Amino acid sequence: MTSLWRTLGGYLWWTYPRGSLHYDVMVTLILAFIFLTPGRIFHDKPLERVPHQTGVVVYQDGTNGFVCQVEASAVSGSSDEEKRESLLRIIEPITGEISLTRYEPVHGEKGKTVAYRAWVERP
User: What is the pLDDT of residues 97-117, one digit of tens each?
Assistant: First the structure.
């Protein structure tokens, strides 16, 4: 009985030398636990990475200016002022502080607005 407790104690305190039978049994049990335990037991799921919601393409235009093309689905608002504010809200995190000089819609094959092209300058 003492031998059984000594063996279990050796497993618990990890006292067996590397390469011994008991050491190999412990390593095998650990690997079996890692690879054979179903993932649903731990409820661990990788984080789902959502790509950036807006497609923005930035081109350099001269010394202080940029031309930015923003997908139409990202731009909100119906009036000119609302569209300008929406474009600035989308573009400024990418380019830094800018002023919007002008913008124009980019139309697709069927005449629908697919993007906005905006000319911006750094102050």
Answer: 889 999 999 999 888 999 999
